[in-house]
Design a protein that fits this description.
Number of helices: 14
Mean pLDDT: 78
Largest sheet: 3 strands, mixed
Strand order of the largest sheet: 1-3-2
Structural class: mainly alpha
Shape: globular
Bound molecules: zinc ion
Distance between the termini: 38 Å
Length: 371
């Protein structure tokens, strides 16, 4: 099994299709080329390569938003996240949980187990089960390789047939740029629904009330009403896609009998003391100067996408396929209603190192009445 080349060029196929006369010999060649593309779908990245890619993407996200330099907050988020990751399909990935220094409400999953949640999201959540809902959703984006699949399906990165990732920093940078665009602009509808569905199962398995993610989406709808009234984001006011997600999860909780009940609100509110900032009040940056490092600098004339990014409910039409590089977001503002996507971030991108052992997680679960 070829576990090295994760993406291969399909340009050759397109040229062959465009130029070949309809002779039997040429059709045979085209058939061969198409077969190669079919096989490409089965090619996988190693976990080590994925982690390397995720570290690059995380670096871009942290450069954009900065990191809250608070050990206790990071430890807490890591405990909740690790408890969830342990019951996921990829417990052995080097999971890292990062709290971003911005009042915008958002979360970002990068490949390899790098989960980011904003200070603004934490400020607006009310219970540990809501946090578990959000983290569970993001964890599924990683375990089910949504970013990598989007790059593959969208044919967003081309490389030579014999090219490999190992030691190829130019190729890794190219991949990281594409992955960052996808993570920043949000995933497709199918990926979002899958993350909702599997994420609440993770939360329920650990003992959290599976309604946490619904609580989060309800909070977003509420939070953005004022902004919508100011007509900056009217599209979002009754965002049917967010409502659809809430309905789907509500049905799933009943039909799959997800009956866990722990919300662990007191521990949440005693640990997380950030003050929420209304959507319309979130400080924003001018286009082209987003973040301390200008990591997501956008041309001023580019129309902004409204509505929410992947975390928050902007499902794309088209049944879950990332249709093109354009659809996956070429630098357009992602993120929250109103101006969350353009929110100001902090200036320190350094990771806050915390260690979370298996016994730490066990003690944490016990204290919270979890399973
Ligand atoms: Zn998502």
């Amino acid at each position: 099994m070829n576990r090295r080349a994760i993406v291969t060029t399909v340009l050759g196929v397109a040229l062959a299709l465009a130029t070949a006369p309809a002779g039997a010999e040429q059709l045979g060649k085209i058939g061969g080329a198409l077969k190669k593309v079919q096989q490409f779908k089965d090619v996988e990245m190693t976990d080590a390569e994925e982690t390397q890619l995720g570290a690059e993407v995380s670096q871009r996200i942290r450069a954009r938003y900065g990191v809250v330099q608070n050990q206790a907050v990071h430890k807490y988020v890591a405990l909740v996240g690790t408890a969830l990751a342990q019951v996921s399909s990829r417990p052995g990935l080097g999971w890292k949980f990062v709290v971003l220094d911005t009042d915008a409400v958002n979360a970002f999953a990068a490949p390899g187990g790098f989960i980011h949640i904003t200070k603004g999201a934490l400020a607006n959540l009310k219970t540990e089960s809501e946090l578990a809902g959000v983290l569970g959703h993001e964890i599924i984006h990683v375990t089910d390789k949504h970013t990598i699949r989007a790059i593959q399906k969208g044919k967003l990165v081309q490389m030579g047939a014999d090219e490999t990732l190992a030691g190829n920093s130019a190729l890794m940078n190219k991949l990281a740029d594409k992955a960052y665009e996808i993570v920043d602009s949000g995933f497709g509808r199918g990926d979002e629904l899958e993350s909702d569905e599997k994420g609440i199962v993770l939360a329920n398995t650990v003992g959290y009330a599976p309604t946490g993610m619904i609580g989060f989406l309800d909070m977003l709808l509420e939070r953005n009403k004022a902004t919508a009234a100011a007509s900056r984001n009217g599209l979002f006011a009754s965002h049917p896609e967010t409502k659809e997600r809430v309905e789907k999860m509500t049905k799933q909780i009943a039909s799959a009998k997800l009956t866990s009940t722990a919300t662990v609100a007191p521990r949440y509110t005693s640990t997380i003391t950030f003050k929420p900032v209304a959507a319309a009040e979130v400080a924003t940056v001018e286009a082209g100067s987003a973040g301390a490092a200008g990591a997501t600098a956008k041309p001023a004339q580019e129309p902004k996408k409204k509505g929410l990014g992947g975390l928050a409910g902007r499902l794309r039409p088209g049944g879950g396929e990332q249709k093109s590089a354009q659809v996956t977001g070429s630098g357009a503002a992602r993120g929250g209603a109103g101006e969350d996507g353009n929110a100001v971030g902090g200036s320190n991108p350094a990771l806050v190192a915390v260690s979370v052992s298996a016994s730490d997680v066990a003690a944490f679960k016990k204290a919270g009445g979890l399973k």
